[in-house]
Amino acid sequence: MKTNCIPILALLCLLVVTPGFTQDFTDQLFRTYEQYKEPALQKRRIKYADLQPLIGRFTSNSNFHVQKVGESIEGRGLTLISLGNGKVDIFLWSQMHGDEPTATQAIFDILNFFDAPGFQAEKQQILSRLKLHFIPMLNPDGAEVYERRNALGIDVNRDALRLQSPEGRTLKRIRDSLEADFGFNLHDQSRYYNAERTPKPATISYLATAYNYEKDINEVRANAMKVIVFMNNIIQKYAPGQVGRYSDDFEPRAFGDNIAKWGTSLILIESGGFANDREKQEIRKLNYVSILSALSTIATESYKEIAIEDYEKIPRNDRKLFDIKITNLTYELLGNNYLLDLGIQRQEIDLAGHSDFYFKSIIVDQGDLSTYFGYETFDASGYTVVPPKWVASDKKSISKAQALEYLKEGVAFVATSLPDSGFFTPLPVHLMRKAKEPSDFRLNVGQNPTFFLEKEGKLTHALINGFLIDLAQPLEDQHFGNALIFR
Q1: Can you give the residue ranges of every domain in the chain?
Q2: pTM over 0.85
Q3: pLDDT band, residue 22 (cuts 50/70/90)
């Protein structure tokens, strides 16, 4: 691969980085992102076949070197895409876990950035000093069914010692052949992680992996810490307070820990949650901006001046978030009233083909949840739980208007003709085949959260499949996912 070299004088000018240069670069990346975002990738459940036309574009581009470097268990090719002619090798891989695709999308945004006009000085600075290597999807078999593990049923990220999987063997072979100076291990984490002791989601979490049980810090690990501090400062501008630090307990089977042991400064990036961003497109953008900014600081070596003590100042990851938290709810049980908080998760259930999902919510905790937080929080002081009713309908279909009338009457379950297939409905009431009064209503962990709220003798809200509906407001003005079909 060949790239044009810039004159020595121009290169020297680039090295004299003004204080605002990196931040200006970052701001411009953020503002111009839509110019480089890969439009073919808009949802998380991407498949191997979705990537092949995109990879094909770079195969025929002389500025990129594209090669097949291995195969998955089921025979899907593993591709390495390289560019740049610098002496510092940077190795980035994504989707080691098949259901963690946020950074896979960001990788193609980054590749588009390097392929498009604009930012010529910044790109030349990076590519003249670094050589970049990307494996966009390390576990395509897992991605096909949107599962963490590979076709063998193992966690590839726990296969660094035995190397049972062809995906793991490929990862180690490429790392060793490159003797990569820096590695970016790109993952997704649960949306229910928060930055410790705050209500803010851990939208991005970082880790400079330990290479031994003692968690010693050598130069290799220190360099990763410094780059992470730099990236944290970038993210703080766009998602303030929404960065966490993953536990650095040593895991001897994990690739990140071993890659750090083998001499590569390993930067683990976990994409978590962001309000109103279920498909993680805003988090994808943050990956794009922060990774390109990190490549810039590595190219200029400005990260070396960062104090590693700042790494420990990044809040730890915690897991105390719910999709919705309802507080101070009055709940009558066996003739007595109790005050409860409820923590609810809207769990995703994959549809056939693993390209989309529906919600099936559950109560995951109840009681005193004062140390927990929610993407949404509803203070139910003065509100009382009212059990849901059912009604039988002889109509072949129910309109949304009719469903809303049912809600105002305290009805959440409708016995009616059901569609031939499917387990969810966009209507704000549950559908069932036979009329059956919900018996012995109780709030319990593991239960689907469906009931009503009453205040001063009037029904005010419905909670249907974990979605809170204000009965005084139009449904279209509210965020509702789906109700369920009980067959």
Answers
A1: 8-318, 344-486
A2: yes
A3: low
